[in-house]
Amino acid sequence: MPVTEQSVSTTLAAADESETVADDTDGEETPSDSKGNPLSEAEQAFADLLTNAVLVGRFSIDGVEDTNLRPERYQINKVTKVRGNQWTIEAQITYGKVDVAVPVPVEVHWADDTPVISLTGLKIPGLGEGFTTRVLFYEDRYAGSWYHGKVGGHMWGKIENGDPENPDASADSDTE
After folding, report:
1. What share of the chain is helix, strand, coil (3-state, %, to 5)?
2. pTM here?
3. CA–CA separation, 166 vs 43, rounded Å?
4. Which of 21, 64, 120, 142 has the fewest CB atoms lying closer than 10 Å?
5. Domains with residue ranges and CATH for the chain
6. 89 and 79 in contact (C-beta within 8 Å)?
7. Are 110 and 134 in contact (CB under 8 A)?
8. Contact residues for 136 (Cβ-Cβ < 8 A; gap 6+)
9. What is the reported pLDDT for 9?
10. From the CB of residue 53, how many other CB atoms can be counted at a distance below 10 Å?
């Protein structure tokens, strides 16, 4: 099921129910989804990769020839599995003059060992509606396509460890 405006409130409410369960074998807590099911090794690696991470890269706009590609930067505070393939990415989204913290409900699909986030026609408060994207993550890289209404393009870059205390720590990275 694609992530739509109707599913946003359900996903966000379920994300609040996400919890940690005790592992019976060693007494340590195991991350789980909102139903208490433990995350798989791949799911945990995905959550770890993006929690407190910064996506630093570039994006293009279809039909616009531009040798000076536009920079993009997304601070991701937390990634939480809700249930099934539904996840919430708590992100600080910055592009142009917009800088806003947003819980973004996404679906995560797997291409072998590679997570791909998917959202379709999403309305993001303060940013508008009609956001659609498919982005894959592998090791320290991300790449994908995006649409906002009738405008679209590509996005790509590096995944860096974010420092919530020092948000400019990775600002000097080479993204080309």
Report:
1. 10, 55, 35
2. 0.73
3. 27
4. 64
5. 5-18+30-161 (2.40.128)
6. yes
7. no
8. 111, 114, 115, 116, 117, 142, 143, 144
9. 40
10. 23
DSSP 8-state symbol, 164: T
DSSP 8-state code for residue 101: E
pLDDT at 165: 55
pLDDT in tens, 109-144: 999 999 999 999 999 876 789 999 999 999 999 999
SS3 of 11, please? helix
| Residues whose CB falls within 8 Å of the CB of residue 129, separated by 6 or more in sequence, listed in order | 5, 121, 122, 123, 149
DSSP per position, 25-77: TTS-EEEB-TTSPBPPHHHHHHHHHHTTEEEEEEE--TT---SSPEEEEEEEE
6: left (phi over 0), alpha (psi -120 to 50) or beta: alpha
**pLDDT beyond 50 at 94:** yes
What average pLDDT does the segment 93-120 reach? 89
Question: 93 versus 169: which is more confidently predicted?
Answer: 93
The rounded distance, in Å, linking the Cα atoms of 96 and 46 is 28
CA distance 44 to 32: 9
